[in-house]
Every structure is written in C-alpha cells, then in structure tokens.
Amino acid sequence: MASERALKWGVAAGVAGLMTLSVAADALAAAPAPRRIVLCVLLAVAPASLIWQCLKRLHLRAPRMETQSSAAPTSTSPSPDQIVLALEARLEHAPIALFTIRDDAVAPLNASARRLLAPGRASAPQDLRQLLAKQPAGQRQLVSFDTERGAERALVAVSTLSVQGATQRLAALMPVESQLEAEALNAWRELVQVLTHEIMNSLTPVASLSRTACGLLDEAGSQLPADIHDDLGTALDAIARRAASLVDFVGSYRSLSTVAPAQPQRVLLEALFERLAALLAPQWQALDGRLTFSVEPASLEVMIDPGQLEQALINLLKNAAEAAGAKPQAQVSARLSRGGRLRIEVADNGPGVPDALAAHIFTPFFSTKRQGRGIGLAMVRHLVHANGGTVRYARSVGAGARFILTF
Fold it and tell me: Is this model's pTM higher than 0.90 or not?
C-alpha cells in the first residue's frame, strides 16, 4: 500500500512540475535572457525536490538476515589427542588379554595381559609367551597353560597388521576354563539324571520280583528236589543282592542332580573350620594322623552356603585320609588372593595324582580307587560351582596332592 501511494504522489508531482514549467516558460518569454534562466531554475527546484522524495519512498530495502542469538552453540569435535586417549583407555581396560608379537617377542598390551603374566597366575610366563608366538594368524585355537590354580584353558586368536610400515601380530587371549567347566558340569548332571532315572526304572521291578520269587520258592520247597531248590535259592538271592547294591549305587549318583540350590550367608571361616576340626578329629586320631586349619586374617568372612562348603571340604579330607594311608597329614588354609578373592587350599601327604589322570579326576564315574565310585570329587566340583567358585587340582612342590578352591 505504501508503494502504491508513493507512486501516485510521484506521478502527481511530475505532472505538476511539468505544468509549472510550461506556465513559467510562457510567462517569462518576454523577460530578458539572464532573468529567464534564473527564474526557471528557481521554479524547477520545488517539483524536483518533490519528485526526489517520492523516488526515495519507492526504494526497496534488501531484507536483513536475522541471527539466532538463542540458538544452542554447536559442540566442538574432539581433538586428535582426546581420541587417542579414549582409545588407549578402552584398550587398557578391555576384558581380553592382548599381546603384541614382533619377531617372536611377546609383550603384554593391556592390564588383563599383565595380570595374566604376573605372579599368582601363569606358573611359567615364558612358556605362555612361547605358546602365543607359535600360534598361526587368522585362526582361533583352544590352548592350555599351567597356572598356580592348575591347568587353564583359553581361546586365542592372532591377527597380522602393519603399524608405521612394520609388520606385527596381535594376539587376543580369553580364559574360558570356568565357562567350560560349568557347561561340562551341566552336561554331566543332565546325563546322570537321565541314566539314574532309566536304571532305577529297570532295577525296581527286578528287585521286587526277586524277593517275590524267593518267597514262592520257600513255599514250594518240599515239592522240589533239594539240589534244584538250592540252585534256585542261590540264583534268586544273588539277583536280589545285586539289585539292592545297584539301587544303592545309582542312588549315590542321583545325589549329583538333586543337590539343593545354594543358600549363601555371611560365614566366619574361623568358626566353620573349628566345627570341621571337631567333627573330623576322632577319625584322624584313630588313624594317628594330623589335621590342621588356618585362616589369615582370623576375621575373614565370605558369603557362601556353609553346609555345602563343609561337605566339599569333608569330601576332600576323606580322600586325603584314604590316599595317605597310615599317619595321614592334611592342612586346610584360607586367605585372600590377588584381586580380593577367597582362596582355600587343601594339601595332604599322599602320593598325589598322576599327571595322566589329573584332567579326569572331577569326572563322574571316574575313580583312581579300586572300589571307588567316582562321586566324591564330582560332588566337590558341583558344590563349589553352585556357590560361584572354582576348584582346581594343582601340582604340589613336594609329595602329596593339593586342591585349590577359589570364590
């Protein structure tokens, strides 16, 4: 609207100016030449000024770009130094042990790798370095190495890369012993449960029928020849006794799959060891043996099912007494290991476990004893795992066997 109004005023001013100039020209025609020039200039000033003001109103102003003062400031991207520091922190605290291999020289790359080579873990760090150096690139292997807690299995993968023009290998090592043991234990538990169920279903009618047949044979004793009666009686008695023995045998294995869930509570280890010492003292005194317990510090406590821990230690000490024979000796010690974990060690003076059999001693049905059932150590592993721990057989520096329970 303002532009249209300014345009109208401009046209009107132009017409008025032209008319004024025309009238002035006719009026001043008779005047002398100098006077006519001055008078024309004075008469032209007013319409020219009016036209100029109208033209100014028609001038279009360029729109101004408004700045958004309230807009949030853009975040600055991290600097290269900050990116490097973040990558180094993630690498340092990665849950996998990482090693660099240059010309068969193996060096730890993060905290997990340094802990693995530190005292208390790998018993022979140099052997572990050589094992990693021999691994081929581009493959995953399941390897085993010795630690102070026993043999440890781990998954290793090696990749080749070039850094600043130099070729090197990167090895990633993840211990999986605890996970493999847990899976193996679950598999054995399910197998034992199925086997015991099927065997019991078959043994129960055999035992019942053998007892019924023995009763019928006694009733018909006078109607059969003496030799036939005696042979049948011997056969039926053998069937009944063997069936009853098998029922008892299978029942002991059924306990592996029917252990009640752990009910952890805060336990003072010194008090638990005192109860075990009082319980086992008569048996060890009868064998002229010596059983000692120690806890460092004396105030050491742990969240665990006390009944299940006691049963696991009783099984280990029972095996120690049987393996040592005359004058058995055993020491049970508890302390905190690296990382704040509880470490309970049971050591005896027996012959120990042969290296060829050490990997199988916790397997159900396996026993080094002539009349053993292979249930004691399998139950120990089951009870320890149920409480979130691990159990290992470790080579003793001297004679005897050494079992390490870690929680």
Answer: no
Residue 142: name the closest of 171, 109, 175 by CA: 175
pLDDT band (50, 70, 90) for residue 62: very low
83 part of a folded domain: no
Whether the bond between 297 and the residue before it is cis, its omega within 30 degrees of 0, is: yes
Whether 394 and 276 map to the same domain: the answer is yes
CB 210 within 8 A of CB 257: no
242 and 275 together in one domain: no
Q: Let me know if residue 182 belongs to a domain.
A: no
Q: Contact at 8 Å (CB) between 140 and 157? A: yes
- The CATH number of the domain where 328 resides is what? 3.30.565.10
Query: Environment class of residue 332 by beta-carbon count within 10 Å: exposed (0-12), middle (13-18) or buried (19+)?
Result: buried
- Same domain membership, residue 248 and residue 271: no
What pairing do the DSSP bridges indicate for beta strands 329-336 and 390-394?
A: unpaired
- Total domains in the chain come to 4
Residue with tokens 């009238």: 23
Taking only the tens place, the pLDDT of each residue in 317-344 is 998 998 887 889 999 999 988 667 899 9
Residue-wise pLDDT tens digits, 235-282: 888 888 888 777 777 776 676 667 788 899 999 999 999 999 999 998
- Do 238 and 349 lie in one domain? The reply is no
Alpha helices in 136-225 (DSSP H): 177-219
CB contact at 8 A, 118 and 183: no
Q: Within this chain, do residues 332 and 275 fall inside the same structural domain, yes or no?
A: yes
The pLDDT tens digits of the residues spanning 188-198 come to 777 777 777 77
pLDDT over 70 (residue 9): no
Same structural domain for residues 296 and 357? yes
Range of the domain at 281: 265-406
Give me the half-sphere count of Cα atoms (radius 13 Å) on the Cβ side of residue 332: 23
Is 90 exceeded by the pLDDT of residue 200? Answer: no
State how far the alpha carbon of 157 is from the alpha carbons of 136, 231, 249, in Å: 8, 67, 45
CA–chain centroid gap for 374, Å, is: 31
Identity at 380, one-letter amino acid code: V
Q: Is residue 80 part of a domain?
A: no
Name the amino acid, one letter, at 35.
R
Considering the domain architecture, whether residues 390 and 277 belong to the same structural domain is answered as yes
